[in-house]
């Protein structure tokens, strides 16, 4: 069994436990994971731009009403050499998780650029 298979099996066990707990995690907190997908250098993202060599984009996964962000992350399965994430942090208002990616310039076709996903892990705001 590969390390990837072990990770997938562990995620399936975790997801089954969360479902059995009625959308709560092991501590009893109601949680939700929010995701947003985008491509480097493609308009309609939070911010985007390019120069002669790089295309860059920032995406934000926002907490739904009644929730607060406790963490976040990203994944980019299409990443190539020299593509990179250069920022992964809570938004300045604390209501989302932001990730900034850069990719080597690949011309005008948006499908030439890597797609990436930003995740925000949120818990219900009981305040």
In short:
The chain has one helix spanning 3-20; strands at residues 31-39, 47-50, 54-62, 67-75, 84-90, 96-104, 115-124.
Summarize this structure as a short list of keywords or feature phrases:
45% strand; Immunoglobulin-like; 4-stranded antiparallel beta sheet; 3-stranded antiparallel beta sheet; mainly beta; 127 residues
In words, what does this structure look like?
14% of the residues lie in helices and 45% in strands. The protein has one helix and seven strands, in the order αβββββββ. The chain has a single domain (27-124), classed as Sandwich (Immunoglobulin-like). It is elongated. The model has no long low-confidence stretch (mean pLDDT 77). A four-stranded antiparallel sheet has the order 2-3-6-5, with no helix packed on it. The protein starts with a helix and ends with a strand. A hairpin with a 5-residue loop joins strand 5 (84-90) and strand 6 (96-104). By secondary structure, the chain is mostly beta strands. It has one helix at 3-20, and strands at residues 31-39, 47-50, 54-62, 67-75, 84-90, 96-104, 115-124.
Radius of gyration over all CA atoms, rounded = 17 Å
Largest sheet: 4 strands, antiparallel
Strand order of the largest sheet: 2-3-6-5
Helix/strand-derived class?
mainly beta
Number of strands: 7
**What do we call the CATH topology?**
Immunoglobulin-like
The CATH architecture: Sandwich
Outline:
elongated
Mean residue pLDDT? 77
Order of helices and strands: HEEEEEEE
Number of domains: 1
How helical, in percent, are the residues?
10-25%
Strand percent estimate: 35-45%
- Ends apart, CA distance between termini: 44 Å
Q: Tell me, what is the CATH class?
A: Mainly Beta
